User: Fold Iron ABC transporter ATP-binding protein from Pilimelia terevasa.
Amino acid sequence: MPNAAAEPLVTAPAPAEPPDPPAPCAADEAAVALCGVRVTRGDAVLLEAVDWQVDPAERWVVLGPNGAGKTTLLQLAAGRMHPSGGTVTLLGERLGATDVGALRARIGLTSAADRLPDRERVHDVVLTAAWSVVGRFRERYEALDDARAAALLAQLGVGGLADRSYGTLSEGERKRVQIARALMTDPELLLLDEPAAGLDLAGRERLVERLAALAADPAAPTMVLVTHHVEEIPPGFTHALVLRGGAVVARGPLAETVTAETLSAAFALPLEVRRVGERFTAAAAG
Ligand SMILES: Nc1ncnc2c1ncn2[C@@H]1O[C@H](COP(=O)(O)OP(=O)(O)OP(=O)(O)O)[C@@H](O)[C@H]1O
Assistant:
């Protein structure tokens, strides 16, 4: 008769190995880290399963058709919106677990929604960013602030317009003043939402030239530029994120991402994409 006590019929399973912790989706030193991000409004899904990491020295362009989720993504990256799911970490601070006011002060954002007073002197439009206000009142500014505003206007090629009132500027000149204003607080991250929208060819080219100079400056902040048009990608930009319908179509170094394949998929149209030097063009294939 078998000895049941000495030879159990059922062998106890070996204790399970503890599961590996999930790999972090982004490095700690990333300027922007989105992990499994989802944004919903009612039944609408604005972003779904977005993983994206921007390292401090990188310059990213975000491309995609109307409604792809580009502005939503930029609002997250500016700390002006929280995700419905997943995590957003900006400059080492996780949204939802940090003082968002202090974080926003470290981020420069320009968008068409910026409302700047037409009557304000151009110099003051830039200067007042130091106090996060849009009109000069009783704030006190240091000579250093004045010098910085003047230097930024000169850097953006609009130094000669410092004494004009903002409302008298052309659209292209305004865009460059807006970027100077966004740089006034010396942000660590600069977000540009369609900076070339509405500009004529010469205005676009002047802006692209200034952004290329900024991108080449090692002291410049991490940059993310949203656009619909590959022609607006400034030389010196390093990476691209391509979105469609709130999802990532492609992401990575510019040369591998801004291609006929990814853009045709994103814009749902067969496209030819050409690269001449550091500039891109796209047109319908045919
Ligand atoms: N509050 C909201 N409720 C429902 N849907 C919204 C809301 N806000 C935005 N959306 C939708 O989310 C989608 C993404 O919008 P978003 O502005 O991020 O796109 P976009 O890529 O910046 O578009 P565009 O290039 O036209 O500026 C759009 O379809 C928009 O209609």
The first strand starts at residue 32 and ends at 41. The radius of gyration is 24 Å. The chain is about 25% helix and 25% strand. The helical segments are 70-77, 100-104, 122-127, 143-155, 171-183, 201-216, 254-257, 260-267.
